[in-house]
Amino acid sequence: MMNKYILFLFFGTLFQGLNAQSVIKGRVVSGNKAMEGTEVYLLPQDSLKTTESNGLFEFLDVVPGNYQLVAVKAGYENIFTDIEVKTDSTYSLEFKMVPLKEDIMEEMVITGTMKPVSRSQSMIPVEVYTPAFFKKNPTSNVFEALEMVNGVRPQVNCNVCNTGDIHINGLEGPYTFVLIDGMPIVSGLSTVYGLSGIPNSLIQRVEVVKGPASSLYGSEAVGGLINIITKTPENAPLFSADVFGTSWGEVNTDLGVSTKVGKSANLLLGVNYFNYSNPIDKNKDGFTDLTLQDRISVFQKWNFKRKSNKLFSVAGRYFYEDRWGGQMNWNKGYRGGDEVYGESIYTSRYELLGTYELPVEEKMLFSFSYTDHDQNSVYGDVPYLAKQKIAFGQLTWDKKFGRHDMLFGAALRYQYYNDNTPATETAEQTTMPGVFVQDEIDFDGKHSLLLGARYDYNNNHGNIFTPRAAYRYKSEKGDILRLNAGTGFRVVNLFTEDHAALTGSRDVIVVGDLKPEQSYNVNLSYLKNWYFGDGGNVIQLETSAWYTYFTNAIIPDYDTNPNQIIYSNLNGYAVSKGMSANVDVVFSNGLKLILGATLMDVSTTEDKIKQRQMLTEQFSGNWAISYTIPTWNMDIDYTGSMYGPMRLPLASEWDPRPEYSKTYSVQNIQLTYKGFKNIQIYGGVKNLLNWTPAKGLPFLIAGANDPFDKEVQFGPDGNALRTPGNPYGLTFSPEYVYAANQGIRTFLGIRYHF
């Protein structure tokens, strides 16, 4: 840890001796009213300030040069101002915002095309979610927060250890690519544990793209991607704190500090600490309902100012977590033994990422990231020890030629993986260089076309080519129609920590030469705004329909032979198709509604037999209804989600549990008081209906009374036999799960920023 801080301090002294710097400050108003929550961008420096209730903003230490300021507020026209900054000067500006007559959502996005553009101008549909949205239902990590996003579902994969991944449009976690500041930080092994340690206080916004994006981002961007964009040190409060606790005994703390270091650097430090140490067994099966956790995450981000006014940013994060779940009387003295069952996971993780803009006239960026993930786990008496290292570098060149807005790029990814399971006899090392090009053509302001392609070479799979195309039409009334077609690919790593794989010693059988999984996607979306009444009442409707076809899916087969793990490409195909709609309604009286619904059909077809994919709902809905009472300085937020039935993994053909889950809903309510300067006090109730997946079931965990299978009798084929003590022929299995087994609870918290 100390070496890491020394490295950051070293970077902080590299760029000294700048010319005297200036200040740009101002106020944003609409009529005579100060505009809170307006985003003011300073370009091309890519700095951002968000106005408080007084409408004020300020950029400090601006080096001399030519800049453009852009004021952005949903429901209002963007305001652009060019300014020439001279040495040691102060500039005062005022932005007068005018309600929009066309677009409502004008956030800046980058994920769709790797370029900062307004959301309405993006060729690729990008959904944007700000911290204000996630604060409507506060959570301790990004994994839980994403449940509020339509078409995105956090999937819990184990009733005991509560690990999970993110599903987009019904596709499993490995098909979702998670980025931090555009870099592939969360992938491979860390998709299971890495998402729970990203401090919410450091998030500037979350961008979601549904559908393949491999032509820009490469492997794993098969079904969709989530880009978590962190705050810049210049934009963050000098100090912020957010602390809350729940009636279950959970305590979460987010701290943030930003400061200037010398004349050439700005630092953002964020710390997240979460603790839950109160074993609870509401369903009386002898096992913890919620995994106990002790987690800390430390994040640092440095922005360095250069004479050329070019960007240089470096960030690093350290994450450590100690979690366990199991029988209520388990303690660390039983770790790895067969007396009392527990699943104990120690995770230690380092991350480094950065962006360096080359000192040339052209817009050229070099981005890099490195992750080191070390996991020490035991599942009962079975150890799982794994190490993963991923290094990534990428160079992009952004160039305009007339109507053609081009992006050229070259990338190199290296991955090392090793574990102690039979699936990995020797350490796996993968090197994958790639090049890509993208051309965005604007014909007349109404019609735009995007063409892109990527070529990658994998040392195991050989050549991989992924093209994509997009068309965008914007009417005179501001309606936007987008048609996207693209391909995705995923190079599969044969690592596993599946409970079935860790039961006994199995031979690994690879059938044929495994080919990369591929997807082919078509997506049609439509955006429409309506304006009514006086004072900026707005309704925005965004609908989309998609069809995604998958080939070469690789699924480990544990069932054919109990002594083997068989890997092969699916002898068939998989399909994800459906439609979704998002409705945002803003009333001038303080009422806001965000509503979403998704209908989908996800299936696999093998040997001409079609089957609904496991753990995929046919419909889902999300909502966030907010109302502000100015005279009380009070915000009221009512949020919730609803999911249709899912096909669940049964433990045997005699398993008495239903094959499909019931439709369920999780609902929450929160009150936030803002009557104190710089302080917010909030509280409420989570899971108002007290829903848990264990309700109405004979049991949730198979074999909970015999977790080491000591009383199970097995037949010659290795399968469990039905006996008087085991009438359903079950072995211990915690995999019949699709959501957290945590019931109703209250919460109370306080936020402070300075």
From TrEMBL:
Give the species. Paenimyroides ceti
Q: Where in the cell is it found?
A: Cell outer membrane
* Record keywords, A-Z: Cell outer membrane, Membrane, Receptor, TonB box, Transmembrane, Transmembrane beta strand, Transport
**Official protein name in the record:** TonB-dependent receptor
Tell me where the transmembrane regions lie: none
Which Gene3D superfamilies does this chain map to? Carboxypeptidase-like, regulatory domain, TonB-dependent receptor, beta-barrel domain, TonB-dependent receptor, plug domain
Domain (TonB-dependent receptor-like beta-barrel) ranges: 269-688
Record bears the keyword Phosphoprotein: no
Say if the entry is tagged with keyword Transmembrane.
yes
Principal localization? membrane
List the membrane topology term(s).
Multi-pass membrane protein
Q: Which family does it belong to?
A: Belongs to the TonB-dependent receptor family.
SUPFAM superfamilies named among the record's database cross-references: Porins (SSF56935), Starch-binding domain-like (SSF49452)
| Secretion signal span | none
Q: Where is the TonB-dependent receptor plug domain?
A: 121-224
